């Protein structure tokens, strides 16, 4: 089978390409990546001599190039995206261009090329924030940032092609990923590499925001399962049930380095920072998927990888040294909790979209798919 994997030089994409080649002896992979700041050729160094892997530099927004390279492929897996929320706040047009228009361009070329199946990789952030419970695939979308709004647009466009053009589309939406080859502007590799260097870690607000953490290789197995067994036009949530506050995540990383909470630098919170993400993955688990990695063991493996692969992340560090960009800085005096203070809970956040009940939905609202 011939696979066309977009964004395959990025974090999740490169891990998926490696997983695919290792587990499917019949897979032939065209790896299509624009090589923006987060698409790193060094992530593919071990794949250069592989006879079933071909790299092509390109942009999913370039319909003419896609028309040349897509024909003859059986399936498309789209990882290509502008994935950093902070960057999307500073430069929203590029995020929306790639995350929505790029998906539309890719879907249109797939239609004309006769591609058999199109898998769009989405994110839990498309749903927005939720105070209690977990989102199911039929819940309406209320994204909070240009990044997540662009991703939601991409998912809806892909699903529209399933309805209108009968393109064989499936969509996944995942929780926060962590693991090897992640660009060091994201929280886990940023904090790990800062601590390797003996630097403080910048924590937004009080650190009370809650995320569910998914080891990247578990995400890869989920994507591959949906690609092969998912039902056309359906969305599959991918979550690991590892919900912790950002402060608790930080404390676990500090403990792994034998560091104290004096290494935390509390910084001004991100504008529109979603309080909590949580996904119900029942639909995916009914296909037979379950995460194979324990959270603490996965964090330990990730730290080991970054310690052993300084030559990979060190050249990237100046470009991703802070995740707060131009809207972050040291928190105002008195805003940072002390080591014994409890992180803020849901009652401390302002009322928002998650306080509404889930509304009706159809294929255009997410019924039917990051990190």
Taking Cα atoms only, what radius of gyration do you get, to the nearest Å?
Answer: 20 Å
Task: Compute the number of strand runs.
Answer: 12
**Helical residues, percent:** 25-40%
Task: Say what the CATH topology of the largest domain is.
Answer: Rossmann fold
The H-level CATH homologous superfamily of the largest domain, spelled out, is NAD(P)-binding Rossmann-like Domain
Largest sheet: 7 strands, parallel
Give the total of domains.
2
Strand order in space, largest sheet: 3-2-1-4-5-6-10
**What would CATH call the architecture of the largest domain?**
3-Layer(aba) Sandwich
**What would CATH call the class of the largest domain?**
Alpha Beta
Question: How are the SSEs placed, and which strands pair?
Answer:
Layout: E1 2-6, H1 11-23, E2 28-33, E3 53-57, H2 63-69, E4 75-78, H3 85-90, H4 92-113, E5 117-123, H5 146-164, E6 169-174, E7 176-178, H6 187-196, E8 201-204, E9 210-215, H7 216-229, E10 235-238, E11 243-245, H8 246-256, E12 264-267, H9 282-285, H10 295-308, H11 310-313
Parallel strand pairs: 1-2, 1-4, 2-3, 4-5, 5-6, 6-10, 7-9, 8-12
Antiparallel strand pairs: 9-11
